[in-house]
Amino acid sequence: MSQLAHHRILLKLSGEALMGDEDYGIDPKVINRLAAEVMEAQQAGAEIALVIGGGNIFRGAGLAAAGMDRVTGDHMGMLATVINALAMQDALEKLGGKARVMSAIKINDVCEDYIRRRAIRHLEKGRLVIFAAGVGSPFFTTDSGAALRAIEIGADLLLKATKVDGVYDKDPNKHADAVRYETLTYDQVINQGLEVMDTAAFALARDSDLPLRVFDMGQPGELLKILRGENIGTLVKGRDAH
Ligand code: UDP
């Protein structure tokens, strides 16, 4: 057993995290760096599942705003998450990792279908699992997919990587006096109208008492520090956050 503070985590990356300085798609340098950090954290002893969004390629809401049928747009968004998941699988395998993409929509010529028991078995056998296609239904996001899968696999922490190093009382890009919270309860997030995840994802995490940590993965090394128990970013807990 490892000496880590967390043993099984689910890491949620937005699709935009893969873009780097590009406007669209995947920057190989960026995905390789992220994969290397995931590998380092796994080698330290953690079981790691990933969810990657699709916003670097398509989002259903954006396509609908441009005139497309919303459900078709969401299907395209879900397929975009499969593309990102395959890219991450490749990057992890290039580094010697063993990874499996599991999709919530059936597309099993290119990856496995999501089967909960099989996902847990992969993790137990030292494989990285990348959950693709969110919850498999339109009108949801990959934040919801991340919260749902984290609960299903019994993750002890959901990690949400963002461009900001935690949750602030106001937008730190606009207000120099913005203050970062070290810990929050789910109720505090609601009562103070703070933005952490979309509402459906947030409700799932809160109802299951799933601890969530928001941090900036643009800072190299943060993932491993969190697994070792360092207080990085903002921790949101179900009850009495200390
Ligand atoms: N999506 C969906 N159902 C899901 C997950 C995702 O329909 O369960 C679609 C939706 O259109 C979404 C897109 O896939 O906008 C990409 O996911 P998301 O917006 O969560 O990506 P991120 O913002 O994290 O890059």
Topology:
Layout: E1 8-13, H1 28-43, E2 47-52, H2 60-65, H3 70-94, E3 99-103, E4 112-113, H4 116-124, E5 128-132, H5 142-152, E6 157-162, E7 183-185, H6 186-191, H7 199-207, E8 212-216, H8 222-227, E9 234-237
Parallel strand pairs: 1-2, 1-6, 2-5, 3-4, 3-5, 6-8, 7-9
Antiparallel strand pairs: 8-9
Helix pairs in contact: 1-3, 5-7
Can you describe this structure in just a few lines?
With 242 residues, this protein is of the alpha/beta class. The protein has eight helices and nine strands. The chain has a nine-stranded mixed β-sheet with strand order 4-3-5-2-1-6-8-9-7, with helices on both faces.
Structure commentary:
The chain is α/β, with parallel strands linked by helices. It has a single domain, classed as Acetylglutamate kinase-like (Carbamate kinase, 3-Layer(aba) Sandwich), CATH 3.40.1160. The protein is 36% helix and 17% strand. Strands 4-3-5-2-1-6-8-9-7 form a nine-stranded mixed β-sheet, sandwiched between helices. The protein starts with 7 loop residues before the first strand and ends in a 5-residue tail after the last strand. The model has no long low-confidence stretch (mean pLDDT 95). The structure holds uridine-5'-diphosphate.
Total helical segments: 8
Number of domains: 1
Q: What is the H/E string?
A: EHEHHEEHEHEEHHEHE
Distance between the termini: 26 Å
CATH class: Alpha Beta
CATH superfamily: Acetylglutamate kinase-like
Q: What value does the average pLDDT take? A: 95
- Residue stretches low in confidence (pLDDT < 50, at least 5 long) are none
CA-based gyration radius: 17 Å
Q: Tell me what the CATH architecture is.
A: 3-Layer(aba) Sandwich
Beta-strand percentage? Answer: 15-25%
Backbone structural class: alpha/beta
Assembly state here?
A: single chain
Q: Profile the largest sheet.
A: 9 strands, mixed
- Strand segment count: 9
Ligands, deduplicated: uridine-5'-diphosphate
Helical content class: 25-40%
Dominant shape = globular
Assign the CATH topology. Answer: Carbamate kinase
Lateral arrangement of strands in the main beta sheet: 4-3-5-2-1-6-8-9-7
Pathway: Pyrimidine metabolism; CTP biosynthesis via de novo pathway; UDP from UMP (UMPK route): step 1/1
Subcellular location: Cytoplasm
Subunit structure: Homohexamer.
InterPro entries: AceGlu_kinase-like_sf, Asp/Glu/Uridylate_kinase, Glu/AcGlu_kinase, Uridylate_kinase, Uridylate_kinase_bac
